[in-house]
Design goal:
Strand content: 35-45%
CATH architecture of the largest domain: Sandwich
Number of strands: 27
Number of helices: 4
CATH superfamily of the largest domain: sav2460 like domains
């Protein structure tokens, strides 16, 4: 049964499970979500954990709603499908099934959902099938597609068909005020990876290293002490951000403050280090940027950091690398709690293939640049350098 018009309803009998699917083919990143208000006044939401504070929910405990995951990331066209299962709605006054257009919301734009050939499919374990098309003609970044409510005799599915701005959505839908559009993907474990595909190959890919710059206690001084983690008085930590690069023409090298090898944005290697934070005064840490207009000429980049001055272990640094591409989720690669005494860490590998950018978490420790080079088969020749 297709609920074509706003306000049309369908009764849903007793069920053990309902499956809700968001299906689309257009090259846009839509996210299936559910927001609710319980009979006792509680509100909340189930949406991708790629969003800050997001939760995929659970079927065997409250809220008895579970989301499958996130599809269409990066605005990729094709057979995109996100699914949500609902095991129980007795506790709810209303459950709102929604679709957020992340592609538009992240860019502050509003287009028409009718352009995206999307629909909601609702199937019960009794074999009942209902569909609600996303064919609203008004622009907006969020569609409140339908809502479920539980009654004394039967549950009800209603075509809601409301499109609104993100601000109006947060204000009007119960639980939606918790949603933060600053989407983030966290690579939690070694080997975790995430692929993004920029909508346009212009602008820059920004790589940031940030850390706790004042952890630790009184430090010793001297060159060898620096290599082992000693250094500036007061316990300040001097981490350096750098990378190994390999271009498609097999040219290889390094971009880093050590040796004043800051690279170039407009010429090979199309990677530029934006400056060395030797004082710890920059709250944003250290940054490198990659020219997206030339990613077809880049094969891979290995992001690393090393302790030039400061603590002899990594636990106190709380270091995090983030990778930002315009209009895409922010990728976060935390080092986590690490007790390794070696002063060099390979944090992430970024591979470029056909316009796709794949980031993989490494967090492997090495005795220095040559050891890392050997581990990842880069083949460079290394000599001693300095930042003076």
């Amino acid at each position: 049964m297709e609920l074509k018009q706003k306000g049309t309803k369908a009764d849903i009998g007793a069920f053990k499970q309902i499956n809700v699917s968001l299906v689309w083919n257009a090259a846009v990143d839509l996210d299936l979500m559910a927001f609710y208000r319980t009979r006792d006044g509680r509100t909340g939401g189930i949406y991708s954990d790629n969003y800050q504070g997001g939760s995929l929910g659970a079927l065997d405990a409250f809220p008895y709603i579970q989301l499958s995951g996130d599809a269409g990331v990066g605005g990729v066209g094709g057979d995109n499908r996100e699914e949500m299962r609902i095991a129980k709605i007795d506790d709810f006054e209303e459950v709102y099934i929604c679709a957020l257009n992340f592609t538009d919301a992240a860019a502050g734009e509003s287009h028409v959902f009718a352009d995206y050939d999307a629909r909601i499919e609702v199937t019960t374990d009794r074999g009942e099938n209902h569909s609600v098309p996303l064919d609203a003609a008004q622009p907006g970044s969020v569609a409140v597609i339908c809502r479920l409510s539980s009654g004394f005799i039967a549950s009800e599915l209603v075509n809601d068909s409301r499109v609104m701005t993100l601000e109006a959505f947060r204000a009007e839908i119960p639980g939606a005020e918790q949603l933060k559009i600053a989407s983030k993907v966290t690579l939690k474990e070694k080997g975790d990876s995430f692929a993004i595909k920029p909508k346009v190959q212009t602008g820059e890919l920004l790589i940031n290293l940030n850390w706790d710059q004042t952890a630790g206690g009184k430090q010793e001084t001297g060159f060898f002490s620096k290599l082992m983690g000693g250094g500036r008085g007061g316990g300040d930590i001097d981490l350096d951000l750098g990378c190994l690069f390999e271009l498609q023409n097999q040219a290889k090298g390094a971009v880093q403050p050590l040796g004043n090898s800051f690279g170039s944005f407009d010429y090979p290697p199309y990677v530029l280090h934006l400056g060395d934070d030797r004082t710890g005064a920059w709250s944003e840490g250290e940054n490198m940027k990659v020219n997206l207009a030339h990613i077809a000429e880049i094969k891979r980049i290995l992001i690393y950091t090393y302790i030039y001055e400061g603590v002899p272990n990594w636990t106190a640094t709380n270091a995090v690398v983030t990778v930002r591409v315009p209009g895409q989720p922010v990728l976060e690669v935390p080092m986590g709690s690490q007790m390794d005494s070696r002063n060099f860490c390979a944090i992430a590998m970024i591979a470029f293939d056909g316009g796709e950018i794949k980031v993989t978490k490494l967090v492997s420790f090495h005795k220095g640049h040559p050891d890392c080079d050997k581990t990842y088969s880069w083949g460079l020749k290394w000599v001693a350098g300095s930042k003076d």
